[in-house]
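2024-03-11 09:14:02 INFO receiving multi-entity request
2024-03-11 09:14:02 INFO entity count = two
2024-03-11 09:14:03 INFO echoing inputs for audit
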Amino acid sequence: AQSVTQLGSHVSVSEGALVLLRCNYSSSVPPYLFWYVQYPNQGLQLLLKYTTGATLVKGINGFEAEFKKSETSFHLTKPSAHMSDAAEYFCAVSEGDMRFGAGTRLTVKP
Amino acid sequence: SAVISQKPSRDICQRGTSLTIQCQVDSQVTMMFWYRQQPGQSLTLIATANQGSEATYESGFVIDKFPISRPNLTFSTLTVSNMSPEDSSIYLCSGGTRQETQYFGPGTRLLVL
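2024-03-11 09:21:47 INFO inference complete, emitting structure
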């Protein structure tokens, strides 16, 4: 069965700094991979997804992620953090059923 | 994409009572799902809501506790029955396909006293 590990339950960056949120997955078949963001008191919003094709995926709000099969990773990055990026981020993998990671809380310091 | 709404957005309930949460999708989706998100934790799939037939429950969740209906392709309900404080959680509805993108509602925040 597929699974997801998000490294780091909390990540803190300064405004303008690089954001890197780590996600490793386990899957027996080529996976579909997702990043969702959850702002306080809201549901989950899709940031980006990888299904097939280009391994570098661009999403909303300046985020992107790269699928690396050899490393079984799908890390999320953003070159310059904004205060509005503060939220909970979830990586998910699907090979039938969708499984979510434990989440990473991103804090952005002024 | 799909836009999903849920009602109520939050509620405070007494133990032993039941609450029914409604989920409405603005377009027809193949599948609808119900998740639970306990405070500070990730999402756990409760069940897949199947149109016109019984829901498919994940391990640890049973129909008597979480009856689900899906009378058509755009609407589903989840009932949390005989509630206890341990049921305090966020309940999220999603729509989409099992393997590809799921779109989420804003969630229902439930507090059981």
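2024-03-11 09:21:48 INFO post-check: The mean pLDDT of chain A is 92.
2024-03-11 09:21:48 INFO post-check: The CA atoms of residues 16 and 80 of chain A lie 4 Å apart.
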